[in-house]
Fold:
Amino acid sequence: MRLVVREEIPKWTGPAAIAVAVAITVAITAVPIRIAGANPVAAFERYLITPLSSMSSIYEVMLTATPLLFTGMAVAIAFRAGYWNIGAEGQFLVGAIGATAVGINLPNLPAAVALPLGMAMGAVGGLIWSVVPAWLKRHGGIDEVVTTLLLNPVALLLVQGLLNGPWRNPETGFTDSARIGTGYDLPALIPGTRVHWGFGIAIIIIIISGIVLTRTATGMRIKAAGQSPHTAEFSGIKVGVLQWRAALISGAIAGMGGASQVMGVQHQLTFGISTNYGYTGVIVATLAGLSAVGVALVAGLLGTIGVGAQNVSLVLQVPTQLGAMFSALLMLAVLSMVTLRRFKVRWRAER
Amino acid sequence: MTSGDRSLLALENITKRYGDLVANDDVNLEVAPGEVVSMLGENGAGKSTLMKITYGLVRADKGTVRVNGEEIDLKSPRDAMAAGIGMVTQEFSLVETMTVAENIALSGVGLGRVDPADLRERVLEVMDRVGVHLPPDQIVGALSIGERQRVEIIKALFHDCKVLILDEPTAVLTPQDIEALFKTIRRLRDDNLGVLFVSHKLREVAEISNRVVVLRHGRMVANKPIEETTAQSLAALMMGVTPDTTTAGDTPLAAVDPRAVSKTAEARQEVQTAKSLLTIKDLSVEKGGIKALDSINLTVHAGQILGLAGISGNGQSQLVDVLSGTLPTSAGQISVENVDITDSNVTERLRAGLGRLTEDRRGTTFAKMSVEHNLVVEDLHKFRRTGMLDRKAIRRHANELIEKFAIKAKPSDAVGSLSGGNIQKVLLARALHRDPKVLIAAQPTRGLDIGTTGYVHEQLRDRAAQGAGVLLISEDLDELRALADRIAVIFRGTIVGELDVADATAERLGIMMTGGEEAA
Structure:
């Protein structure tokens, strides 16, 4: 048996690859779920079906997906331009710091001022965190993968430093910030649920990004720059400038994700403000094929699994981490299968 | 014709399919000892598939390969080598940091110790046999392309090779190197080896072969002794048209003169005094202390095709890059008509009237993007409506150009899925629809089949006839002499001379291309 490169990739292999990937994921994760003492079939139902079977849990899915919509779109924009921003995690955190900074220092602003200010501070925070790697890339040709990645733990240390020092909660003494002014609280998008306007803002950003990326000259230039920077330069596209802008916009969107999490969910800065949302954003963007619609769908899927994991751990008494494992394996399987589409298996009779 | 008992290599009923495409359809081919068989065919005719099958790189769906009448099972090139089949491909597989002898030893089958003295001895023996002399201890990286090819040939002959396959061996060679190669081939022939020679060039085929086979759409459409062929009949067979018998349809192939000079001497003189459209003055490009281009002076006049001959790697690609706007100038000046574009960016250059057709076809198109998007990527600002891209206008534009330039593709096809010829047409369409004042055409027909080559030539001539200037950079002297009014020669980053086409004989150009003589 050997693999042969296909001359042309038939269309049917797309859905088939996804189906095979899901099957592989299910088959592999069944083992640890079984070991954890639960029925795999029941677990998969709860991972994928239960979260979408009632309105209240759908709202939870929307809430869980919100930060991933921000970080996924942020990463997708940068990747499309050929700028490998792995720093959405840090940008998200600094965005959260930005929103908190105004939220606790100017707590009495009215919502009409506080809401745009908080979100803008989030964007500024993310942008600041993306400026240095983007500048180094543009003027020094320094690999952004390394610089953006290395700034992530720095951002986390910054959060920890602030929470252990100046921003330590004055009332409780815990390492959480004080509550932000109520003017900063993002209102509910759907009354009576926890789904806040952060979700709405993320969807608006995704729609705008989608239109810009696919329907405008700028979008086509970004695509061209990402596909082949050399050819893009030859065609008169200023790749360096485009990547610089994409890097900053990416950082700003990730930062808004951090602000949204502070203003919509936690209402204070905490150590756990990001549970790897930035890194998961890389997964979201990659699985989405860097398309805006794809980001919305994949963030929704991961949100579903996230909510499902909570449910599974409560009901079936298995660790929540199995949910993360399920997501991670699914991504590995999907990416492998999509790559393997390019090959076909040739069986050769032994002589 | 078939004389199974005396054939050295026999391919019998070879059939190979790739999906719906039949690359080889029941092909029978024999090579006798002491015979040079040339294989002609357009791109995609199935030549390389047949070569790969013979060399064990691809397995045939049907058919057998025999060497000396004995059927061989070709699972890999190793089996082919063991059976006495050697092949020299267009791309060399040499380790540049190792010596000639070491490279030859590398091809050796099996493990174990190599005795350097013994190896040297054997290498020299083979060199003597074919009349090639290269120092065995020379580092391959220091050799010229022609010399490297000789190393490849020796490598192939090292293991008791009975049949040598040469896949377009002359594509990268100077006329002098080609002559040397032909000498080697004759020597091998006299030594009773069989040689299978794959080429595009009718003249070379006429010069070197005993027999010609023509492939078309995977089928063998001709198999004749060279004396029975004519240039016209072979070209017609390759392209699948009936030869035009009303014109001189019976010129013997051996007598083909590739020179079909397009203009009279007076017309060329006149063009030389027309206004200059591209002026390159004292242009130098220096990178890391190395001068890739050194004080280049060239002028292209309206209506003129200026040829630039040279062996690749003598600064042509840097010249194209610096003219295209992707490489900065170190010194000197470039102007299009009266506009100084020395420091202009790509968009400004295009606006000034520069058209570009570079050697690197795939490097100047976006493989994953559609034909229509590739056609507009340089002019996106012209296809905007209310801030959005005007998709209808883009589609219309693409359909117009596809028809005008006879591109075999749909607007939505990814460029990466097109053949080289069609990609070149997309690039032609992109460069020419703007009516550039000057067109830079670098190796515009490399790797293209005869049909597309003719089309590209026609387009270049048309441009010049309409008053544009063309700078044609090519290694193909026949092409240069057929199209250009004047031919300049580049060697090691300098222009070593410029000749009227009437004075530019292959010999003279060849000497200049290798730095032999400074022409006035």
In short: Chain A has a mean pLDDT of 91. Strands of chain A lie at 2-5, 343-346.
